Amino acid sequence: MAAAGGYYLGVDLSTQQLKAIAIDDNLNVIHETSVKFDDDLPEFGTQDGAHVHSDKLTVTTPVLLWVKALDMLLERMKISNFDFSKLKSLSGTGQQHGSVYWKEGAIQTLKNMPDDRSLHQILETSFAVKESPIWMDSSTTEECLQLEKSVGGPQNLADITGSRAYERFTGNQIAKINKKNPEDYKKTERISLVSSFVASLFLGDYAAIDYSDGSGMNLMDIRAHNWSQRCLDACAPGLKEKLGAPLPSHSILGSVSPYYVKRFGFNSECKVIAFTGDNPASLAGMQLQRGDIASTIFLRLGFPVVSMRLFIEFFSFKNGSLTREKIRDESASGSWDEFAKALKATCPGNNGNLGFYFDVMEITPAVVGIHRFNAKNCKVSKFPKEVDVRAVIEGQMLAKRAYAEKLGFEVLKDTRVLATGGASSNPDILQVLADVFNAPVYTRDTTNSACLGCAYRAKHGLQAASGQSFADTMKNAPEPKVAVTPACEVDKVYGPMLARYMELEKLVRNNC
Ligand code: ADP
Ligand code: XUL
After folding, report:
1. How far, in Å, is the centroid of ligand 1 from the Cα of 302?
2. Is the CB of 14 under 6 A from ligand 2?
3. CATH superfamily of 315-444+482-511
4. pLDDT band, residue 181 (cuts 50/70/90)
5. I want to staple 167 with a disulfide (CB 3.0 to 4.6 A). Which of 33, 131, 138, 405 is the partner?
6. CATH code at 7-285
């Protein structure tokens, strides 16, 4: 039995790293660790956690890198004397939309994992597709058009699945694999999302896809909470069996595989709660409740995502952290301190200079390239370095506000912005965010709210069985704190600039 005063573990397989956070019964963080793919597993040759293929549209990550990262994460926890025997439950999350293709017979391997071998050694030949497509892939336009056509158009698809067809959504990725590599598809006995894949590793069995992550596939009938046969048929044959039935996000999937009990000293009663996508998990970590919809906007700054009206509507941008890092390297000597100095040396509105920095093909708008405009709306090829730094941040934050407003979001007197993700540790970036939204920005002690959210979800998963709500579980959790407030009268600058941003975006879109 688990010792009194148990622990709960959250795991997050994001684009660039695998992270874990453990909390105690009082929701205090007691352990945090991570494995960074490029640095810790250089043998896979990833850049920023991925392989961008020569067409620049196909983006994948080797599935065995993820497996090896879990070996490494658990070894690191063991070395730091983390007491696995106190874990009562665990849950987790993964970058949304990515998919894993288990080869025929892999289930037997998963169910019989010998504890004297690493997961990487055990599962080396268990995957039909070695390079897993991830959310940054935009190579499936053909498949998207085909899917929309087969259900009677984009609106019909949106009515069924909640979204029109997106290149990164898993159904379209599966359709591409079936079309381009039918043998690989045939050899696949089960398809997992990144989230349910990590859950499967812990469970030693195929884990169900949860409703929330399942809704990012263009395959689920979001009202029926089940796969839409029409969408499945449009993507690939026999898909229903390969996906398994989806389940609610708080479901208890079972106990951890005996492998973890023997190899790391896990408690044999430690339960695995369904894993979910990183955006819903972040909402749990920021303790966003349905009542917050009207006045709260939630921004993940690791990969800047505007997600609002909880789970209903949602925008995702690809040019986030990595694009900021590029400008930091080019215009601020590769240092966040220099970057901060440049932000401080320039003023809100950047004297009318405005930029669109799409280092890789953006999701919305579907544009690539860097487009800089001076105060007279003339395109220029370069900005002075500190102007460039402010322009990338202002451009990204204006895009968030512009797209939030397109979804009907309005900045009100009590609006608050909840920020999370890697960049939310940077107060100077947060200041621009507060100024552009003319609202205070709140953060948590950890920038990794998706992982923390899953530690909370792990605890709630045990309590949900007896009818307890997530809000009940979270009663005594520490609240997010105000990190920065907007400067005085700054809306006079950013109000007109927002309108200009949208006009110039049209121009950029039309010219591309
Ligand atoms: P991922 O989902 O890729 O693991 P995270 O949410 O953990 O992303 O964020 C990682 C990113 O955070 C890095 O790419 C880096 O650009 C950004 N970051 C980390 N520290 C800072 C900082 N002080 N200022 C701005 N950005 C930062
Ligand atoms: C969401 C999306 C990204 C990934 C990043 O639709 O594509 O936010 O979840 O991890």
Report:
1. 5
2. yes
3. ATPase, nucleotide binding domain (3.30.420.40)
4. very high
5. 138
6. 3.30.420.40
